[in-house]
Amino acid sequence: MSMNRITKLLKTARENAAVLSLTIVLAMIFCPSVVKADGGVVRATETQGPFIITIFTPPEISRDLPAEVAVMVQRRATGEVMMDAAVDLSFIPPAGATIQSNGLSAIRATRDRSANKLLYGSSAVFPSVGDWQMRASVRQGGENASVSCLLPVGMPARRLAGLWPCLALPPFVIALFVMNQWLRRRPA
Amino acid sequence: MSPTAQAIFSSWSIDPKLALGLIVSALLYLRGWRVLHRITPRRFPVWRLGAFFGGLAVLWLAIASPLDAFSGLLLSAHMVQHLLLLSVVPPLILFGAPLLPLLRGLPRTFAHDGLGPFLSWPRLRRLGHWLTHPVVCWLAMAVSLCAWHVPAAFELALHSPAWHRVEHASFLGTSLLFWWPVIRPFPSRPHWPLWTVPIYLLAADLLNTALCAILTFSEHVLYPTYAAAPRLFGTTALSDQAAAGVIMWVPGSLVFLVPAIVYTTRLLSPSHSLAYPVTTGAGTAPSVPSRARPGPIAAMVRAPFDLLNVPVLGRFLRARYGRRALQAMLLVVAIAVIADGLFGPQTSSSNLAGVLPWTYWRALTVVALLTAGNLFCMACPFMLPRELGRRLGLEPRAWPRALRSKWLAVGLLMLFFWAYEAFGLWDKPVGTAWIIIGYFFAAFLVDAFFRGASFCKYVCPIGQFHFVNSLISPLEVKVREPDVCAGCTTHDCLRGNDEQRGCETSLYLPRKAGNMDCTFCLDCVKACPHDNIGLQVVVPGTDLIRNPRRSSLGRLSRRTDVAALALVIVFAAFTGAAAMVSPVTGWLAGLTSRLGMASPLPAISLFFVTALLLTPAIAMGTAVLLGRSAAQAATPTRELLCRFSLALIPLGAAMWAAHFLFHLLAGYGSAVPILQQAAGTVGFHLLGRPDWALSSLRLDANTILVLQTLLLDAGLLLTLYVGWRIARECVPRVRAALRLFAPWACVAIILYVVGIWIFLQPMQMRGMMMGASM
Lengths: 188, 774
Description:
Number of helices of chain B: 36
Number of helices of chain A: 4
Strand order of the largest sheet of chain B: 1-2
Largest interface: A-B, 72 and 94 residues
Strand content of chain A: 35-45%
Low-confidence stretches of chain B: 274-300, 770-774
Structural class of chain A: alpha+beta
Order of helices and strands of chain A: HHEEEEEEEEEHH
Strand order of the largest sheet of chain A: 3-9-8-5-6
Oligomer: heterodimer
Shape of chain B: globular
Strand content of chain B: under 5%
CATH topology of one domain in chain A: Immunoglobulin-like
Number of strands of chain B: 2
CATH architecture of one domain in chain A: Sandwich
């Protein structure tokens, strides 16, 4: 690389320092899941027996797509999070829908399956649209409690609709290329 | 450590996309920094590298650590996360002066030709100048900070992952702007003198204090989500909110006040001027050396990456028996596949012959082609019988002149693509075993009776598939210094010498261009007495744009057989995948019943003849003729047809990769239990009993779909770029080039749309344990 090229590189870089640095860093940030969202929304919190049980799910649940369901179990007296409970989730489909043989009759939720290790989590796939009833049963040291809540399951976005960022990529790159060519042909 | 604390500290969420983004950024920075550090160590000292990497590490901590897992439960955890994004990550990244290292870290062609025109665009410069004005920077951060703390906006972000991304991105983006006039990353120029910086920081601290006071002293919970969240660690929602306010207040204020004090101290020091600052690395004119300094400048000139120079791998590849070792390894695999195919269970999903060649080998070789080069031919076990044939002492002859083209291979490839579907080869382990045996036999026969590597060059369909797709590989066997070859009189790379044979496919290295007919055998590398041949990195696709006279091949623009080979391979990528999706299989079944046939063979044959022969011929012929006539191009039709056919290769390769990777990723654990079973059959129980549960290991369908689409995107873009460059080369005027290009581009886009449509259909899981469609 000649001295002229280094000088040119520095000159160009200095003149565009702000835009370039921001573009690079923002491109990094806007990468689809670089900034991920937090857990879910609280569907139910109830004090049952010796426990306080809270159920979390994603804000939107779609048919046929895995949804992370999580349960927090706390001791009623102290509010301490319980780490050694057994949590089972059962689901009742909306009227008219049935659970398939490989479906959701009962699932064991464990702390391993949850991103937040204080919660008992599991992944569930809901095969039909409507209001599902979910029941979280908690057992610990001979004591039992359960909490129920409704989970509204909606239609999933079409697979094609979910692909739009990927499908938009070629037109976007082509537009940049056209601009690149236009700028190159522009008189200095 | 208590179980609760253990649970908290293990609540990390590792996001591969985040990790990939950060790793790529770090590698680009490191690549550029190394060069710049050698040239101007004072301007790019080690601490800048540390600062940039530190910024990335804190970004990772904010997004992937337990802070993120608890930010939905505790406002105080959420506030720490925001504080890192607002006040720690941006200064660290800007202290790294990321612009020059990242620019230098990018591939030179991309930085120069791709970004160059944008960088010299006056409007963009003006925009950058405006954006980094202190008033704009301050207001951007202030508006973002205030707006997102309004309860409605904060709640929106808590309940919508998409808005949460926008919130975090705006925090990070505006705080990068905010810190710009404070840190003044090299080589930017400051707008205002240094004395304004403390005032700028104090004004921000005042705003922050006001916001914190509202949070800390509010008598009711401002964000309902936290009121509904379960209470942890004995806190109430209100005390959590007050703690969040204090976190934002005390460390948040320190972040503004400490640099304000540092700047004030410097301003008050007697040696300092109140005018524009001259600080280390901030806002100063670049110190370009005033006279040539050969040492550091030489460091900027990089020789292209050469795989043969990589310490252990390079030595292994150049070793006399390096290739033999690879071939022997694949020979063992081939023998195992043959044995299991002939004597093992005849269910493809539980037989090595059903899974290894059709699921693993195909996917891995295509990945190798796209990421490295023709690695399969390098390790091809079918070449071993050739050595055996030569020892028979037969008098080998030259390959018949009439067959010295790719037409025979075109026919064999079409036959194979049709037979694969018509006879369900993937589902016949014994058939697969016989095909491999037949392949060994054919290679032995051809190479025992004919000179050189006639089988590889003119017959082998697998080889032709690899030759064609390796035209877009990033590695190429090529001469390192052309001047050295100019003085060479022995031409050992072609003719060989007493110790090493030369190129068996008759490629003379100084005139070799691209990877066509190159088996990566590295005989030329070993034969060259000047050590002047390497396995070098090239820009993928450039070989399709050039049209040089190639050794042993001539100009590809005159090779109709090579163009036909490329078209068959490209269209077969779409045809083969289409034949596996429900709408097409249903349509074929319907056609069979309408024709009143008992066998689906005629319908499948009709489908393949139409898709592999008629469609490419009609589509390419029409597109080229239309384009040529519209552009009034003088270039002969045959030349245009050949060059534009080759330009479709990236799209075809992307489709092959997307298709094969789908099968691999949808059941990547299948090989283990099958291998355990096969080993057990021959009494080798060391691998344990077959664990069939591993067969269900798979990537989820949506991730595979995104991966497939991104691959096809890349293929389409490279194809269109190559086509456009060819059009510009044939017709110098832009409008005429566009007319020449447009009809052909329509063919490429239609193929892309067909590919996306195929991905969206349920596909048969051939040879996989689950047997269902996905």
